[in-house]
Predict the structure.
Amino acid sequence: MASSKIISDSSEWTFPLLERFDKEIGRLALEEYGLDIYANQIEVITSEQMIDAYSSVGLPINYQHWSFGKQFVATEQTYRRGQMGLAYEIVINSDPCIAYLMEENTLPMQALVIAHACYGHNSFFKGNYLFQTWTSADAIIDYLVFARNYIAECEERHGQEEVELLLDSCHALMNYGVDRYKRPSPLSMAEEKRRQRDREAYLQSQVNDLWRTLPLEPTEELRTEERRFPEEPQENLLYFIEKNAPLLEPWQREIVRIVRKIGQYFYPQRQTQVMNEGWATFWHYTLLNRLYDEGLVGDGFMIELLQSHTNVVFQPPFDAPYYSGINPYALGFAMMQDIRRICEAPTDEDRYWFPDIAGQDWLKVLPFAMRNFKDESFIAQYLSPRLMREMHLFAVRDDDREDTLEITAIHEEAGYRQLRQALADQYNLGSREPNIQVYNVDLRGDRSLTLRHYKYNRRPLGESFDEVLLHIRRLWGFDVRLESVDEIGRVQLIGEV
Amino acid sequence: MSHFIDRRVNAKNKSTVNRQRFLKRYKTQLKRAVADAVNRRSITDTEGGEKVGIPSKDISEPIFHHGPGGKRDMVHPGNQEFEAGDRVARPEGGGGNGSGQGKAGRGGTGEDDFVFELSREEFLDLLFDDLALPNLVRNQLVGSTEFKTVRAGYSTTGAPTNIDVVRSLKGAIARRTALGAPSRGRIRELEEEIAALLNGGAAETDPRIVVLREEIDKLKTRIAALPFIDTFDLRYQAFTKQPEPTSKAVMVCIMDVSGSMDQVRKNLAKRFFILLYLFLQRNYDKIEVVFIRHHTIAQEVDEQEFFYSRETGGTVVSSALNLAYDIISERYDSGTWNIYAAQASDGDNWDSDSTICRELLMNRLMPLMRYYAYVEITPRQHQSLWYAYQDVKATHPHFAMEEIDSAEDIYPVFRELFKKQEA
């Protein structure tokens, strides 16, 4: 009886079968679980095309740069040697949401990927506040087309090498080209093109204005000496350079802007790795189990799925030779499952720790969590004592003033809060990346740019910072200084080029 | 609401441009890597590509990041024996560096080199980059070798593909104008006559006017009958062949296979010639290679025998030079050929023969040569041949000599001998 409902026992996929699976998974996801998604555009590609997609940071289209070639060569090499399998899918935050499926996947894997990417990631892109605030899914492809054409045009006009050097410099600062407190306006290609020309002319005039020497009273000079430009330190280095670097040509400003925009596009992804993967993994697990419950897939199908699911969420312990940090799939999936458990079958401990959600409808609680948090706050809010125990989490303090490491907290009553805070902090971009801001420009003197590194826990900058300074110098056109400020406010010059 | 697309048919080499840019950017480092690779093994072995490594440090893209030091808290899974407050020794290498992003491994086994594969084409391109046969002259206008097609105006005959439309139509207009001119002149006269008659009070039905009108109609038909375009009008673009100065070149490879050349040295010599042969094949389409090997007697052999056969005996270098001279004067006229020679030997020779060699070179061979490269394969002291050749070098700037001690020297010496010279 039940066997008649099974969609297919074969491991070979065909387009009609994929459509059938998509229909069933979609029915469950949308009607039963109420996920809200962008329309899906599912593209089947070969492994070579997957390597191509890898090398352009997962974007379907991108401008040309040697660093993508390097990435390509590296991926190709490790794939050929068999050191690394390729991801089963790549999904792009766009509307419609583009997902790439590899043709080598078996039918059960394709079903898993459809559930994972086209319903899991897709609904995350559409729902999470960071993506809502910082990216425009409907415009990104257009913008990438614009960027690619614009940069190709610049290469024709100004020479490939010059454009390449500029892009190198911008890439070095890509993580420092992000607005954290402003909603960027949506970008569409037509509009971008129209505005770009006005911008070129306008920007140039603005910049020159900055350097106009104003005759000042000697008494006033003392006061202006103390006034800094910018008046408040700025953390978006690329934005500051785009708007204020004195010597950049208009086309160079536009390229700085392009890199900045793409950096901005990836900003939410960098902050929601655990949540995003956890959410998608949770949904492929939940949706496919429902398919099994309904008798639409057979045992063999389910075993293959569970096997690859288990590999994905495997978390080796810290002392395993292949341990490389916490697996975001494992942590994210475990937390999502745990939240559902707290809703459905709370213990007393859960009621004490999570009075708001214990016993509530998980179909409301989980989407709320997905929409309104990022990794840092999500962990701080939802990591439960029970999960800390299950994962045997412990916190280590590495202080270079001590000879040994200190275990500061473990999975026990006294340690839960501290442990949770430490893990949340680990996902805080602010503490993961050095905090570097534009501090001052010597407007009246040598036009030098001063950056300040505000130290966090006395952690110094990694060694390549002097090379980054050279890149900033190339963009700025005049001397660049980097000062380090420690926690009690002492300033120290650590680099000058 | 989902839409499936089969993209497998699309082009897959989207990254080719980026890959080329990467190779171009790191050409210097790659060249170094290629030089290393060619020393490791014979290049004829590499049917496929070649693996090369360049220092990761050179290709890294710098970003601001935290360095080791300061105070940091890390959370790890899998605790078994630790209690809060425990102190443990810092693990070796990473200093507890297992970062949250899973980037730096614990073992501290950082990869020093960025290793990847070049295709054979790319490999050889880099290997022979900036190399050239010295003093190559393109000035031989030889009977039937190469021609260049150049335009030579227009002709009245030719293939239909070469019809020049504009020219042909211009001709047609001129012809129509010329052939129609008498008729048009006559029409004008007749019309003036009619006008005069009408002015004189004649009616349209007047028989004189009717006759005139009929004649005008006849003339108009004649004009209309002129063909719009006639075979007579057709013009064809004409081309002619001009002889091209071509560079014909021949390389004479002379290898010593005498008993004093032990297996190791023969291998070195062969590797040198293999490199030379590959280079010539790759960078010059039309080059002839003459293989001569000698012990006491010299012999012209084919490629297969030159590289693979074994034969030994004593050493008389002049035998090979004599043979080379004979072959050149018989087959390769120095007026039309660029003549090159490369010789490899361990420098062992009959004492009295070295002076003969010097005389042979100075008086007979060198005047014919564009370039003569001598490679001595010996880790020992030089012998008479080296000193004899030094005399040749002193008087002939296009004579070059180098020595090879071991396999690592082959490629650098080869580069030195054939580096592109400033024009």
Summary: The two ends of chain B are 67 Å apart (CA to CA). The longest strand of chain B covers residues 147-155. Residues 165-199 of chain B form the longest helix (35 residues). Chain B has twelve helices and 13 strands.
